[in-house]
Design a protein that fits this description.
By secondary structure, the protein is mostly helical. The chain contains 21 helices and four strands. It holds the Pfam family Na_Ala_symp.
Length: about 475
């Protein structure tokens, strides 16, 4: 039996049309159920990122919580995933990435609200939350809830070593090796030391480092991408028009932007949605684990804060990569050495090189390394909290931190096709119990959303500074005096 082929077939099934329809369908349902408030309050949500609620219970600030979540989501998918989607699904795939992200806002909001609402405090005073706690405490049928929670936690732990660790380390080592000839073992050793030194100190250390790395890498990539886009600004209008034409064409068509690439609407939709979800993780249930650690006065406030992660990841960073590729005319380039279409990181490098020349390798290598390293940090926290749900022993948790850091070296120096397919399958399986939980507890999400809208959002949009917890405590104290 060919294990690699079997895993690839299983992975293709897990990430097939049914799963993608469930992911997007849940987002559409929640968007309508919440009366489009996640869309209407997107500007408000961005403002909330920087509003600190430090006196409330939690481990890290709302900003650090978002940066921890973004550290795990803004990764190789933003560079490799976008270019791959545009090669396999045509330039129209980028449009479908945006569409899936728009509905993903509501999904990310809902799962983050539940994570804060049902979080607990663990034995060392840290917050423990995420879909597994929402399933355990929120679902009325305790057997079903506990079973779903255990399965979700197992999938997260298994995913963390692959999709969140070895494959990321391998991406860094491969990029540095192919661009500059740096031995993979050297890159692996550096990644390992850096990872262990940060991870052993826990969420406070991860939050602080992420709050520096994520904004820095985002600004660096934004500036580099904007330079390329501005230089090729004359090609943008026609390129965007071509994207939308190919995104909604029922017949397989080719366009100037796509070069020799031919794709239909269904092909564009399939690859755009798949890579979009892979990049922003809306619906997978991973980001809410970081949301549960935030200091906040209301579950909805952190729901809005973490929701912006999907906006920044897909609607900004992925869009930049897509526009760089589209505006430079490199999509559809054939590699003369292999006779195949140039894809992945090499296509992104080719696009940047049209403006930066040989420095393109440096730009993409730096961006890829920072994106991938931050993903390692974020996913360790996800895996740790999932393991903590399954096993309460603190020695096991501390051992996990060290082992997780050490395994990055194996990832950097090993061929990973089997590991990639296995971990990608586990990553997809996380979504099944999470989506069931979101639909099951949609009334809880709606109640929190509408209550917060009336009590806080409307007033804060009018210039008031509202502390929901403080006001609630005052009302309860008044009732007790009466």
């Amino acid at each position: 039996m060919d294990v690699s082929k079997l895993l690839a077939d299983v992975n293709n099934f897990v990430w097939g049309p049914v799963m993608l329809a469930l992911l997007v369908g849940t987002g559409i349902f929640l968007t309508i159920r919440l009366k489009f408030l996640p869309w209407r309050n997107l500007g408000y949500a961005v403002q909330m990122i920087f509003r600190q609620k430090n006196k409330h219970e939690g481990d890290i600030s709302p900003f650090q919580s978002l940066m921890t979540a973004l550290s795990a989501t803004v990764g190789t998918g933003n560079i490799v995933g976008v270019s791959t989607a545009m090669v396999l699904g045509g330039p129209g795939a980028l449009v479908w990435m945006w569409i899936s992200a728009a509905f993903g806002l509501s999904t990310k909001y809902g799962e983050s609200v539940l994570a804060v609402k049902y979080r607990e405090t663990n034995s060392v005073g840290e917050m423990a939350g995420g879909p597994m706690y929402a399933m355990k405490h929120g679902i009325s049928n305790k057997f079903i809830g506990s079973t779903m929670a255990a399965l979700f936690a197992i999938f997260v732990v298994l995913s963390s070593f692959g999709i969140g660790n070895m494959t990321q380390a391998n991406s860094i080592a491969s990029a540095l090796s192919s661009s500059y000839g740096i031995p993979t073992w050297v890159a692996g050793a550096v990644i390992m030391v850096a990872s262990v030194s940060i991870l052993v100190r826990g969420i406070h250390s991860i939050g602080k480092v992420s709050s520096v790395i994520v904004p820095t890498m985002a600004v660096f990539y934004f500036i580099a991408a904007m330079v390329v886009i501005i230089v090729n600004i004359s090609a943008i209008p026609a390129g965007v028009a071509e994207m939308f034409r190919m995104a909604f064409s029922f017949d397989a068509v080719a366009g100037g932007v796509g070069g020799s690439i031919i794709a239909s609407m269904l092909t564009s939709m399939r690859w755009g949605v798949a890579r979009g979800v892979f990049s922003n993780e809306a619906g997978l249930g991973s980001a809410p684990i970081a949301a549960a650690a935030a200091r906040t006065d209301h579950a909805s406030r952190q729901g809005y804060v973490n929701m912006t992660g999907t906006f920044f990841d897909t609607m900004i960073v992925c869009m930049l990569t897509g526009l760089v590729i589209a505006s430079t005319g490199v999509l559809g380039t054939v590699d003369p050495a292999t006779g195949k279409l140039v894809s992945g990181a090499q296509l992104t490098i080719l696009a940047f090189s049209s403006v930066f020349g040989d420095y393109a390798k440096l730009i993409v290598s730096i961006a890829l390394s920072l994106f991938a390293f931050s993903t390692i940090l974020g996913w360790e926290y996800y895996g740790e909290k999932a393991l903590e749900y399954l096993i309460k022993n603190r020695k096991v948790i501390m051992s996990y931190r060290v082992i997780f850091g050490l395994i990055t070296f194996i990832g950097a120096t090993t061929t990973l096709e089997v590991v990639w397919n296995f971990s990608d399958t586990m990553n997809g399986l996380m979504a099944i119990p999470n989506l069931i939980c979101l639909l099951w507890l949609s009334n809880d999400i709606a109640k929190e959303c509408f209550e917060y809208q009336e009590a806080v959002v409307v007033r804060e949009k009018n210039g008031e500074d509202v502390d929901y917890c403080a006001e609630t405590d005052e009302i309860e104290a008044a009732h007790q005096r009466i």
